[in-house]
Amino acid sequence: MSKLKLPGKKQTDVQLMQTAEQIYSKMTAESTLFAAPVPALATLEAALTAFRNSATEAAYRDTRAIMIRKQKRQELDYVLKELSKYVDTVANGDGTVVLAAGFSLQKSNESYSGLVPKAQRPLAEPGQIGSGRVLIKTTSWTGARMYEFQYRIKGSTDAWTSQLSSKSSCVLEGLETFKEYEFRVTYIGINPTANYSDSTSSYVL
């Protein structure tokens, strides 16, 4: 069963406008399939126009105009969210109907069931002098349930020490100051088999 995916909050203003325009255009063209949208497509068109106008005004960095743009974006988000409920009801799990309305589909868990991709080489940022801390970051992956960060003193044959994180970054503490460490990371997905990144190194302050 396919699930509808709402436009993301991470979309830029322009991307959100393009998404809304696509939904309006496709649902208008498929008037037989979407006979009585709730809210009406006229409501979506009005919200989109208001947001587009507010974004143009906010381009001049006027504080009040920026606040209005934020408000109009929230209003457009709300209309799209309510409209998605109507489309979801009409689709009843049929992904082709969701796509016909201009919405996207969520990725199924099956698409993440294989070996996790190799994580990118992590970035290490030492903390203040004497802190014994290092901030480790890697690129996030949607299919990751957890991130496993590993470290050891560079050049040693010691076993790697692991630290799990629910985010693509974590702070490693209690490291020996003025020693050089090496770090690596792997995603942990449905398939628990590790696929470690290339290692990176950094001195601990």
TrEMBL record:
Gene3D superfamilies named in the record: Immunoglobulins
Domain of life: Bacteria
InterPro entries the record matches: FN3_dom, FN3_sf, Ig-like_fold
Full protein name: Fibronectin type-III domain-containing protein
Native source species: Sphingobacterium pedocola
Lineage of source species: Bacteria, Pseudomonadati, Bacteroidota, Sphingobacteriia, Sphingobacteriales
